[in-house]
Amino acid sequence: MQIEKIQTKIYEIRGQKVMLDFDLAELYEVETRALNQAVKRNIDIFPKDFMFQLSQAEWESNSSQTVMSSRKHRGTIYLPFAFTEHGVTMLANVLKSRKARQTSIAIVRAFISLKQFVLSYKEFSEKLQTLESKYDTQFKDVYEAINFLLEKDNQETEQKQRKRIGFKNDDPN
What we know:
The chain contains seven helices and four strands, in the order αββααβααβαα.
């Protein structure tokens, strides 16, 4: 299973990276209804930090902002469940097929890959900010000198263009 395909199904909701029940059902090759029934039969292994149900506002906001297969999979009556990385791992215990175990491994790898990308991006961003501040202060003097020279050159050009007034001596002697 392609990690990139899985990563497109990871959303950020309530400040957490989650996957929605209908996307997981598609990956596990089961019906969303069957996945949710299996979860409800084993609800004790899905605490609130592993799984939560989206509110109406969250569902509307996310289905309009992203290209979720939103309303065609469910109406407004049944709001989707969101599974955190840990909740996704627990699904392998509930859906006991070989496919479920393989899919869970691929999904966990996708979450790990996403975390590594975020960490490397953060490190890169911090290094870039450090370089910018270092070189901005070093080049500040250079910028000021260039601006001074440009202003000085402009002043000299203006002086040469001024029409001289007063006594003119055309005699070279």
